[in-house]
Amino acid sequence: MSIIAWTVMGLLAGWLGKVIMPGKDPGGLLVQLALGVGGAFLGGFLWTAITGGKMTTRGFLPGLGDVLIATVGAVIILAIYRFVKSKRGDSSKKD
What we know:
By secondary structure, the chain is mostly helical.
């Protein structure tokens, strides 16, 4: 995939991840892009490990399946971030 495709997919997946899991998370557009690209890597890894299939592209733009897989990865990353953040918050309140 090209840089344009990774950027488009990252923005879409990051935005969709935040829509699916709304909350008061820090960051703006760059954080959503990083969340989406990270989600693409994680989702692609999990998809390949589970199904043995590859992610597909249509020219220089990502396919719908790619965006969905990346969004699932972004939601997983966001859930892990919130879990770790909540555990850190709870441990600091005990002191």
